[in-house]
Design a protein that fits this description.
CATH topology: Rossmann fold
Subunit structure: In the presence of PdxS, forms a dodecamer of heterodimers. Only shows activity in the heterodimer.
Oligomer: single chain
Strand content: 25-35%
GO cellular component, one term: cytosol
Number of domains: 1
InterPro entries: Class_I_gatase-like, PdxT/SNO, PdxT/SNO_CS
Bound molecules: glutamine
Catalytic activity: L-glutamine + H2O = L-glutamate + NH4(+); aldehydo-D-ribose 5-phosphate + D-glyceraldehyde 3-phosphate + L-glutamine = pyridoxal 5'-phosphate + L-glutamate + phosphate + 3 H2O + H(+)
CATH class: Alpha Beta
Protein name: Pyridoxal 5'-phosphate synthase subunit PdxT
CATH architecture: 3-Layer(aba) Sandwich
Length: 189
């Protein structure tokens, strides 16, 4: 089975770990730099991006995490995970996220979104969600809400502003593991 990591410093990592294990992956919770060794893919969960940034700094994770992603490991980032990947945080994706973009009053809402490669819409749960305010030409927007991008892809990095792990949705994690398996197969070919 492919070995995937879930950043587990803070936030909603447990639901991602459980779902990925259900889907047959071997999963490691990532808290220190050594936990990144040998990973075939990485999930950055939702939570609080400010707290996550402090944890990443404290543990010296930015360097090794960036090296893993730049080496081509597939990534799935959700909500605060999307924020962590943007130009103003880890700088691994050519996007700028706007935090709490839908307004602090609208703490959460749900919407059905069509995403490429999926036959039926995704039931998306947004919790104080960001949107993508700016993006470079290499970024493909996969879905928007009211004209604001909430799902995007750049190479093997996919980000969504919502929480697929909270609505019984499994297909985004399946697609992620598909990309991970392809990469593992290509590497050993
Ligand atoms: N509002 C959070 C942040 O700015 C993200 C919310 C979430 O991950 N559910 O970090």
């Amino acid at each position: 089975a492919p070995l995937v990591g879930v950043l587990a410093l803070q936030g909603g990592f447990a639901a991602h770990v459980a779902l990925l294990r259900e889907l047959g992956a071997e999963v490691r919770e990532v808290r220190v730099a050594a936990d990144l060794d040998g990973l075939d893919g990485l999930v950055l969960p939702g939570g609080e991006s400010t707290t996550m940034t402090l944890g990443i700094d404290r543990e010296g994770l930015a360097g090794p995490l960036s090296a893993l992603v730049r080496a081509g490991a597939p990534v799935l980032g959700t909500c605060a995970g999307l924020i962590m990947l943007d130009r103003e945080h880890l700088g691994l994706m050519d996007i700028v996220a706007r935090r709490n973009a839908f307004g602090r009053q609208i703490r959460s809402f749900e919407a059905d979104l069509d995403l490429p490669g999926l036959d039926d819409p995704v039931h998306a749960v947004f919790i104080r969600a960001p949107w993508i305010e700016e993006h470079g030409p290499g970024v493909e927007i996969l879905a928007s809400v009211d004209g604001h991008p909430v799902a995007a892809r750049e190479g093997d990095i996919v980000v969504v502003a919502f929480h697929p792990e909270l609505s019984g949705e499994r297909r985004l994690h399946e697609q992620f593991l598909g990309r991970v398996r392809e990469r593992v197969a290509a590497r050993s070919a």
